[in-house]
Amino acid sequence: MLLHRNGSRGPRAGIHPPARPAITVDDREATIAAVLATPCAGTEVTPEPSNLQAVRTATLCLINQERASHGEQPLRNNAKLQEAAESHSRECVELDYFAHVSPSGETPVERIEATGYVPSPFDGYVLGENLAWGTYELGTPKAIVAAWIASPPHLANILEARYTETGIGVTAAVPVSRGEGAPGATYAQEFGVLIT
């Protein structure tokens, strides 16, 4: 799911993010080469409450390798996007559903805005979300990212050039109606960039 809003171009109040330094072609190529040269650890780990940080790290590493293999810059982790992703993956399990829009009607944009990621209503953004769940070995970072890559809409989010930040939420369980009590994991990945 890809969501976009252009910000107002008039006078703005509130927080103004600092200008990002320009990235040279050499810097870009060096960054992409470094991502491709770095192996991802823990990609076949079964998610458990005690190892979720390692699972998130492995998932982001695999996502960034896929981006790099297509010439895209790696995503940086953002705590507010991670907060939105964590709450959504957890809510899917707790309320036994699997969808971008919650049973209460909360959308990905509302979930992300509630964290304060978008500093003001005058800021534009491009946001996206990928969801997945898997039981047994299909719940590992390697299996989840492979499933996203095999799905054109999920891959489009992974490769979206405008995204600069992400947050990955992993809950070491699956909605009962999906997994029928089998061990596994539910993943939510939020993607974002603010347009200033």
Question: Describe it for me?
Answer:
The protein is α+β, with helices and mostly antiparallel strands and 196 residues long. Helix content is 38%, strand content 19%. It has 7 helices and 5 strands, in the order βααβααβααβαβ. The chain has helices at residues 25-37, 52-69, 79-94, 108-113, 141-150, 152-159, 176-179; strands spanning 2-5, 76-77, 124-135, 165-171, 184-195. It has a 5-stranded mixed sheet with strand order 1-3-5-4-2. Helix 1 (25-37) packs across helix 2 (52-69). Mean pLDDT is 89; it is low at 4-19.
Query: From N to C, what is the helix and strand string?
Result: EHHEHHEHHEHE
State the oligomer: single chain
Radius of gyration: 17 Å
Main β-sheet: number of strands, strand sense, barrel status?
Answer: 5 strands, mixed
What level of helicity do the residues show? 25-40%
- What is the tally of helical segments? 7
Which strand-content bin applies to the residues?
15-25%
Structural class: alpha+beta
Q: Which parts are unreliable, with pLDDT below 50 for 5 consecutive residues or more?
A: 4-19
Which term fits the overall shape? Answer: globular
Count the beta strands: 5
The first-to-last residue Cα distance is: 22 Å
Major beta sheet, strand line-up: 1-3-5-4-2
Mean pLDDT: 89
